[in-house]
Amino acid sequence: MILLDTHAWVWWLSQPDRLSKAARQAIQHNLAAGIVGISSFSVWELALLVQRRRVQLSIDLLDWIAETEAIKGVTFHPVSNSIALQSVNLPGAFHSDPADRILVATARHLHATMITGDAKIRDYPHVKTLW
Prior knowledge:
By secondary structure, this protein is α/β, with parallel strands linked by helices. The chain has helices spanning 6-14, 21-33, 40-51, 61-69, 81-88, 98-110, 119-122; strands spanning 2-4, 36-39, 74-77, 113-115, 129-130. Helix 7 links the parallel strand 4 and strand 5 (129-130).
């Protein structure tokens, strides 16, 4: 199973050439197996980025999310109490960005490889990543 970081989700659907070749292949492979995950917290993060005009989508955000939900093999994972607690108790040293902490905790909870270009996450030894 893989979990897409927020930027990986956006790039996968709007600018796939921004993803690494390995990330694109992993997404295709896991999509065929029906195990591509996206955290519901990424919905929150993306909504905030759109609202602040740091990300522009080609269609309305609600439609964009609905189109993602309709892709066979994609599952949105809610932030459970367990994930919320894990996010504040991550092992070792990790930076304080709440979105990254939630996403890392989600990947760890799901035993998923996180698709991310974020160097801070990739350098964190307590979550498996791919880029």
